[in-house]
Design brief:
about 170 residues; Aminopeptidase; 7-stranded mixed beta sheet; 5 helices; GNAT_dom; Acyl_CoA_acyltransferase; Acetyltransferase (GNAT) family protein; transferase
Length: about 170
């Protein structure tokens, strides 16, 4: 287990696309092996990650013994999950923590960083979501001060729980 946190969260650069995509694929497999339907295997391609990095959406944290230890997308709207809501907010998608850093507080560290990004941009709300059946992640988000504010159904595929907290 890791006993120190990164010093900062940085905007991802094109040379980090492979590491971000590799971490995503590893976590997709890890979730699948445990019967957690958070992310379908192969849902996000390396090309999609590259385009998201080019748009400045990915933030990364590194640790000396691991390299890329955590990553997340920071967005300013999320119409696919939140609809046409124009309320100014910061949104996090795809929060990932390397399993070797589990339990070290890196998830909280990343969320705190996203909250700071939102505050610096002058927004008052922080929003995220997770698949409704992922009770562990839902409990984690609730423990970080988020409250469940809704749900969105995607037909027979899945449903997500929408979370929000004030900044």
């Amino acid at each position: 287990m890791v006993d120190t946190l990164p010093r900062r969260v940085e905007i991802a650069t094109p040379d980090q696309v492979t590491s971000i995509h590799r971490l995503r694929r590893h976590l997709e497999e890890w979730l699948h092996a445990r019967g957690i339907r958070q992310w379908p295997r192969g849902e996000v391609s390396g090309e999609e990650v590259a385009a998201q990095v080019d748009r400045g959406e990915w933030r990364c944290a590194h640790l000396p013994d691991i390299g890329l230890a955590a990553a997340m997308r920071v967005l300013w709207s999320d119409p696919d999950f939140w609809g046409a809501d124009a309320t100014p907010a910061v949104y996090v998608h795809g929060l990932m923590v390397d399993c070797r850093a589990a339990g070290a507080g890196l998830g909280k560290f990343m969320l705190d960083s996203a909250a700071e990004i939102g505050r610096a941009a002058g927004v008052e709300l922080f929003r995220l979501d997770c698949v409704e059946s992922n009770h562990v992640l839902r409990a984690f988000y609730s423990g970080q001060g988020f409250r469940e504010v809704g749900r969105r159904d995607f037909g027979n595929l899945f449903s997500v729980t929408l979370f929000e907290r004030a900044l």
